[in-house]
Amino acid sequence: MVVSGWCDRVAEGDRTLEAACGKLVRVWVTLCQYDVVEVFEAPDDETALEIITKLGRHGAEETETLRAFTRDEAEEIIKRL
User: Fold this and answer.
1) Residue 28 and residue 75: Cα distance in Å, rounded?
2) Residues 6 or more apart in contact with residue 7 via CB below 8 angstroms
3) Phi, psi of 14 (to 5 degrees)
4) Residue 13's Cα: distance from chain center in Å?
5) How confident is the model at residue 1 (pLDDT cuts 50, 70, 90)?
6) Residue 59's pLDDT is what?
7) pLDDT tens readout for residues 34-68
């Protein structure tokens, strides 16, 4: 379950994202193996890794990273096959 200080960590995460030119898209509190799911955008994969590493520095976060493609991006890739 969500632990004490969660709101402070979310605010700190927002600041970390903004400093790295990232953008928080959405936050969900969930009833699953993860207490919170946050979706963010970053300018590139290297920046995404930087953000994730900074967010995990307190040791309380566990991340699972997914690279997502828009439908248009996926269709362009599939056309090349």
Assistant:
1) 29
2) none
3) -60, -45
4) 9
5) very low
6) 64
7) 777 888 999 998 999 998 888 887 666 677 878 88
